[in-house]
Design a protein that fits this description.
The protein has about 425 residues and is mainly α. Helix content is about 65%, strand content about 5%. It has a four-stranded antiparallel sheet.
């Protein structure tokens, strides 16, 4: 069912905004407290401690105090120093170098949104002004930030675009095409980046989760998610560019099955959306597709580079390490995509520390995870909440567009 105007105040309520904020701040506080009480042992010449492999696992466990003992002066083993969070803080110096890279990180956030705004202007044939495009993108990101990642905010996005005066059919097509471009970018970048980096150190988290009766580790979850995105993208391409009517008929027949009947109306609506999108995109030039995919590439690259530049503000990384940081973010994105929390709150902070911790000064993973979310997530919550009332008032008297079914019937007639 499409989003109605009466639903918006409920979907964008203060409660919906506070939930991800509280989850995110709660997890961030837990990570910071863990770091503050954490002791690490770092290899250093003429250190005070030596490793004794107390748990007999053959690995240096830098967090386990039982793994290290004061060294004997006659020992020739690798030595370590014991570091607390206060010791680590004392080693960090904020320089002009740090300021430069933090400003570049902020610039990436701006570039990300400019790319999205340009894309939506191309998709609407410049029907939306830059001001309207800004409002749409901010509210779209706002909706995504307060919606569980696994659910998504496509229905709200269609409402937002439609309320700006874009027909319902064109709004539906626009949202579907943006999803297609986002997924296509991801599907193409994953194999490309994996070819450039070693996969040996790509899947660093070993947490296991149960899915449909199967227990999968991080690598298994990633490839399952990648396979799902590939299947979804293939279905959209087939439905939109080749057989939209046939796609609707298959869906209609499939959802006649007894255990699927209650979703039949939604399935038929999806079929109508495929037909609308197919008609809206028929005859689009190669330049059109180059523009929207180029804008997608630009936006997503800027989105991921925010993390690279935040890390560069505090430590030096090689080209190879930056590629690995980028590659691990691709893995993180799938983990965040299946998160049940609004905007991946909590999950994102933990994933950041787990996947990127070894590229960050010891003990600073939690602090940089919070900094990353302060730049790339929380602003959309607050900007969206600020512009929503004014936007609702500004767009209140716009003419309502026809329904998707009416548009299909009109075009077929």
């Amino acid at each position: 069912m499409a989003v109605e105007e009466s639903d918006i105040s409920k979907k964008f309520s203060l409660k919906r905004i506070l939930i991800p904020v509280l989850i995110g701040l709660g997890v961030a506080t837990w990570l910071l407290v863990s770091n503050l009480t954490e002791v690490r042992f770092v290899a250093a010449p003429e250190g005070d401690y030596v490793w004794v492999d107390h748990n007999k696992n053959g690995e240096v466990d830098a967090h386990d105090v039982n793994e290290f003992v004061l060294r004997d002066n006659s020992s020739e083993a690798v030595t370590y120093n014991r570091l607390t969070y206060q010791d680590i803080l004392a080693q960090i110096n904020w320089t002009w170098y740090s300021t430069f890279w933090m400003l570049i990180a902020l610039l990436m956030v701006v570039f990300r949104d400019l790319g999205y705004m340009y894309r939506i202007r191309v998709l609407t044939d410049k029907q939306l002004s830059w001001r309207q495009s800004f409002d749409v993108i901010m509210l779209w990101e706002f909706a995504s930030a307060i919606t569980p990642s696994v659910v998504g905010g496509a229905g709200v996005a269609v409402f937002i675009v439609n309320r700006e005066g874009v027909s319902m059919g064109k709004s539906t097509a626009l949202v579907l095409v943006t999803a297609l471009m986002d997924e296509l970018f991801y599907l193409l970048m994953v194999p490309l980046v994996i070819l450039m980096v070693s996969t040996d150190n790509l899947f660093v988290l070993q947490d296991e989760q149960a899915f449909f009766g199967m227990t999968l580790n991080t690598e298994g979850i990633f490839w399952m998610g990648y396979g799902f995105l590939f299947l979804l993208t293939s279905i959209i391409v087939l439905g939109v560019f080749y057989k939209p009517q046939g796609f609707k008929q298959v869906l209609s027949q499939l959802f006649r099955l007894r255990f699927l009947k209650k979703w039949r109306a939604k399935a038929e609506k999806t079929g109508d959306e495929m037909i609308i999108t197919s008609k809206a995109l028929k005859g689009k030039s190669l330049l059109f597709w180059i523009k929207i995919f180029g804008a997608t590439f630009f936006s997503w690259t800027a989105r991921f580079w925010v993390v690279n530049f935040i890390i560069l503000a505090f430590t030096s990384t090689t080209l190879g390490e930056n590629l690995m940081i980028y590659a691990r973010q691709l893995i993180m994105w799938v983990i965040m995509l299946i998160s049940p929390t609004p905007g991946s709150s909590g999950v994102a902070e933990v994933a950041f520390s787990g996947f990127l911790g070894n590229f960050i000064p010891v003990g600073f993973a939690a602090a940089l995870a919070i900094l990353w979310r302060l730049m790339s997530y929380y602003p959309y919550l607050f900007v969206g909440a600020i512009i929503l009332p004014r936007w609702l008032k500004r767009t209140a008297n716009r003419k309502k567009a026809a329904t998707p079914v009416q548009e299909v019937q009109a075009e077929q007639g």
